[in-house]
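Board notes, transcribed. Complex of a protein with guanosine-5'-triphosphate.
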Amino acid sequence: MARPRRSDIIAAIATAPGRGGIGVVRVSGPQLGRLATSLVGRQLPPRVATLAIIRSADGSTIDQGIVVFFPGPYSFTGEDVLELQGHGGPVLLRMLLGRCIELGARLAEPGEFTQRAFLNGKLDLAQAEAVADLIDASSEQAVRSALRSLSGAFSVAIRELQERLTGLRMRVEAGLDFPEEEIDTPQSADLLGRLAAIRGTLNEVLAKARQGSLLRGGLQVVIAGRPNVGKSSLLNRLAGEERAIVTPIAGTTRDALRESILVEGVPLHVVDTAGLRDTTDQIEEIGIERSWREIDRADIVLHVVEARDGWRIEDDTIEQRLPKGVEHVVVANKIDLAQVDCFREFRDGCVWIGLSAQTGDGVTLLQKELLRAGGWREGIEDSYLARERHLQALQATASFLDHAAGVAGQDELFAEELRLAQSALGEITGQFSADDLLGEIFSRFCIGK
Ligand SMILES: Nc1nc2c(ncn2[C@@H]2O[C@H](COP(=O)(O)OP(=O)(O)OP(=O)(O)O)[C@@H](O)[C@H]2O)c(=O)[nH]1
Ligand SMILES: [Mg+2]
């Protein structure tokens, strides 16, 4: 499909705000040759780093730097692109940008360069999103995973699934179009076998995408429990520094306190909360309300108890109020006082981790358990840095395939489910995506990208 080409020239500072050794202004649009000549006073050879003086309208020097001209379509956006690498001062870069605007460019919107790359067929939607995710990546694993999506590995996996679905549809639809012909109509068993194979591959893609989505978004972990069991001490231990106030007084923590840590590259957003109990203290009461608000947003609740006294009646009350479906891990803290070794046990349908926030004994067990409870699978090296919308599309695909399996033998219905599955996959790469979705995705990019 021919994509519309945008006709105006956009410009932005592409490097991060602040001072730096160099700073880059990027310009993209049709026929940039004239603008480039006006900027540097001569014609630029394509794709050659050229030392040049960039001048203002009256001929005075703005900066001296390296200028590179990429004539379209061999550029990031597919249009003509000009990169001005000047000295990295914020005022100077604004002057360079101002000069480009004088010469006919306008300020780029967030993500507009990448959006043009998408519209000109340089990247598909999943790859374009990977550009933003690569910039935002918070661990080396996330970087590798975003690069895999950017290089097209995720898109290739999606396209392969689509091609296999097309093959299957063709076999079914041939029977629909020529019902009287004695063509070799496929047997249901054969179709179901192929469908199951596609479903298997989809599951693998989904597992890799889930893994990548954990690397991207991480997990909300809320530490909750009765007062004084050592919740704040546990947060400090996980964070590796004294973030929260710890005292022997029950009811020390009032406000929820948040700390992000990385475990195997997965960002864990850990929240320490006020101890849960009935109270008449007005401040503590507000703190406890906040604890429940955090618990309602959690992926995983760490329910802390003391190893010595174990589970108490108040813990039943806490457990009963936890939101449905939240992962619940019980931490038996202060094993040093109970004089037992650290442990991981399964009790009453729940995982218990015995540890000491004070000595650190057992904390690695807890970190492993957090990853496991969050759905992290060891041994998946080639994950795709997927987003929530990708997961939703993959899950929708899976349910269309499951419906198809349920109507095998009814060829028309079967073919229709396959068609729906294909279009759900197409949303990932942007083959079938609404304009407002595109606007939403690109507006979250930074300016200059
Ligand atoms: N021996 C020992 N003491 C601990 C351990 N963890 C915490 N403590 C002590 O227990 C007391 C309470 O610890 P906090 O971390 O403030 O407990 P909390 O659950 O945050 O308490 P609130 O904020 O009041 O709800 C402090 O005196 C800590 O030093 C542990 O593993 N071993
Ligand atoms: Mg506390």
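Residues 155 and 429 are 6 Å apart (CA to CA). Residues 231-232, 244, 252-253, 272 surround magnesium ion (ligand 2) (CB under 6 Å).
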